[in-house]
Amino acid sequence: MKPRAGSKALIREINEALVLDVVRVRRPVARARIAAETGLSPATVTGITARLLGAGLLTEAEAGRSTVGRPARLLDLSGDGVLAAGVRLSSTEAYVVLVNMRGEVVASHQEQLASTRPEDAAETIARAVRSTTGSRASATLVGVGVAVSGVVDQQGGIVLHSGSMGWENVAFRRRLASLMDTPVVLDSYVNSVASGLLLFDGGLGGRNLVIFSVGESLGASVVVNGNIHRGFNGTAGGFAHSSVGTGSARPCHCGAEDCLETWSSRWGIDRELERRGAAPGSLAGGDDVIESAADRLGAAAANAAKMFGPEGVVMAFTPEMNIPALTARTEQVFRGHYAHNATPHPTLELTATGPFDHASGAAHTVLAQLFTASTSDAAPGDSPSTAGVG
Ligand SMILES: [Zn+2]
């Protein structure tokens, strides 16, 4: 591990993150307001904002109205000077988006995978990121976020299990980092989506939520006081591989039997219909399979929610699982599990997500680190920072 940054550098990093976060929430904003909200002295704020302007992280917007004296110059996040790349890796392609600090997607690109082998996937991602950033040589790339379906140890940079990629314990961040000269962050699809929601949906800051992702695979993101709860080795939210205990002995790609994944993911539904002789990908004649999927999903989501007591539950359905019969019944079953509960139940929101949300969420995971000073003992090179541009 590299030596830890000196305390002076660390304080500077924390203060820069504090200032950037106020600009993110209040943009455009005057320096005086930044000083008031951060508790930093006006002179310190002037010094920090000068550095951030020089690094291209901030821009100076047109003058705002001031009641006394000269009009205050307002600060905003940079629209094009600093970009983060987000990549959604699937078994067939790498889908890359470039996102500016305001969370706006400014470019996108797709590249087919030669195979799902980690070395092929890493090379495809590196190539796809290079082609997407090539036309924006003047911008600074602060990092690359990569979203992979499955259970991901974000801190360790390891894909613990991915059914769609066929991976177990793949140290994918290290492999990617050897191909790119910018920091890499690895996370699951659902945690990437959660990062995006937490950063750019003002109503979610500081809240307790459980976000379920329902698609080819199942995933969950547990948000405690506005932060993603990771659990031991990043295994929190792995409700796909909780047992439904019906003794049906459906084999799961994780090696166990009768996981929720085998009943309520698109992968599980397709395997069951194939077993019955249906044409690949067809849901014809599978009404009871959809019903069983919804019954188990609604119950599992309610059980998980009761464990954490969130204010809100979000169920995000990807296109292959956005089936009206499935979503309606899942909602009905979920709500039914709270019908006899005297305690207030969480709000339930059903949304549609897709590859775009996974890729932009992965970029938001990188951006989030600019607005949150890291005080952990992670090696400095492991997380994005503004070092080198300021
Ligand atoms: Zn399983």
CATH class of the largest domain: Alpha Beta
Elements, N to C (H/E)? HEHHEEEEEHEEEEHEHEEEHHHEHEH
* Estimated structural class: alpha/beta
How much of the sequence is in beta strands?
15-25%
Q: What would the CATH topology of the largest domain be?
A: Nucleotidyltransferase, domain 5
Ligand inventory: zinc ion
Percent in helix: 25-40%
| Apparent shape | globular
Number of helices: 11
What strand line-up does the widest sheet have? 6-5-4-7-11
Residue stretches low in confidence (pLDDT < 50, at least 5 long) are 1-5, 375-390
Annotated CATH homologous superfamily of the largest domain? ATPase, nucleotide binding domain
Largest pleated sheet: 5 strands, mixed
Radius of gyration, whole Å: 22 Å
Mean pLDDT: 89
> How many domains make up the 3D coordinates?
2
Number of strands: 16
Q: Gap between N and C termini, in Å? A: 24 Å
Name a few traits of the molecule.
single chain, 390 residues, alpha/beta, Arc Repressor Mutant, subunit A, Nucleotidyltransferase, domain 5, five-stranded mixed sheet, disordered N terminus, disordered C terminus, binds zinc ion
